[in-house]
Design brief:
With 239 residues, the protein is of the alpha/beta class. It has helices at 41-49, 71-77, 94-102, 106-110, 113-125, 127-131, 142-154, 172-187, 199-205, 223-227, 230-237; strands at residues 3-12, 15-25, 30-34, 56-61, 64-65, 79-82, 160-164, 191-195, 208-213, 216-222. Strands 6-7-8-3-9-10 form a 6-stranded mixed beta sheet, with helices on both faces. Strands 2-1-4-5 form a 4-stranded antiparallel beta sheet, covered by helices on one side. α3 packs parallel to α7. The longest helix is centred in the last third of the chain and has 16 residues, at 172-187. The chain is globular, with a radius of gyration of 17 Å. It starts with a strand and ends with a helix.
Length: 239
């Protein structure tokens, strides 16, 4: 397994939001975790990135224990985190936002040509960003800002990219476009961990899936099988 999460627990004050969560992500697959608001999905990603303290458990990436690694070391190890809400820098240009992503890439520190190579890759994947590279990020549409957030993550050249609700607040036609780009990123050899409330699209996209309810994983299996599971259908697909 590329990523192994073992018995992860996260607590905010006296409230435990993640209870003994274990799962794995293998190289070059798309794994999705679906669940309702408040299930603990975003907290789980922040625990992997070490943006929140853990109350217990272990995170192993490429065979190395990164449970206590500072966030910058988690990034340097090869994990990119595309946060919920995009969190771009609206007062900076598109290109400046991308260069902030590059600043966390240890490969580009050693070889400056890596920066341009990754920038070219982002612009090939998202031609609109190239057209708007001198515009401030805050002037972009919601879909373009999501592209920028993804592009910023790709500047790290990560082995694993964690997406937190990439469809949030976007029109259906834009959502389809974003999911097509996620597939293209997987086809580039990246591994994807996808947190998504649009359960139907997530399950159609993914290889394997987990269902999270109130901080606990309750179902796991092949994504297409879960797409046809009556319990998943009734709870998350609205059919």
């Amino acid at each position: 397994m590329l990523l192994q999460v073992e018995h992860l627990r996260i607590r905010y004050g006296h409230v435990e939001v993640l209870h003994d969560v274990s799962f794995g992500v293998d190289t070059k697959e798309i794994v999705t975790i679906i669940g309702s608001n408040g299930a603990g999905k975003s907290s789980m990603l922040m625990g992997i990135s070490n943006l929140v303290d853990k109350a217990g458990g272990r995170v192993v990436f490429k065979g190395t224990d990164i449970t206590s690694s500072p966030p910058a070391q988690v990034v340097a190890a090869g994990i990119g985190h595309i946060p919920e809400g995009r969190l771009i820098f609206p007062w900076l240009t598109v290109e400046e936002n991308l260069l902030i992503g590059d600043s966390g890439n240890p490969k580009s520190h050693r070889d400056k040509s890596v920066t341009q190579k990754n920038m070219d890759l982002v612009y090939r994947l998202f031609p609109k960003l190239k057209e708007r590279r001198a515009q401030n990020g805050g002037t972009l549409s919601g879909g373009e800002q999501q592209m920028l957030a993804i592009g910023r993550g790709l500047m790290l050249d990560p082995d694993l990219i964690m997406f937190d609700e990439p469809s949030l607040g976007l029109a259906p036609v834009i959502v389809e476009d974003i999911f097509e780009h996620i597939l293209a990123i997987r086809d580039m050899g990246k591994t994807i961990l996808l947190i998504e409330q649009n359960a139907s699209m997530a399950l159609q996209l993914a290889d394997r899936a987990y269902v999270m309810e109130t901080g606990t994983i309750t179902h796991t299996g092949n994504a297409k099988d879960l797409l046809n599971d009556p319990k998943v259908i009734n709870a998350y697909l609205g059919i």
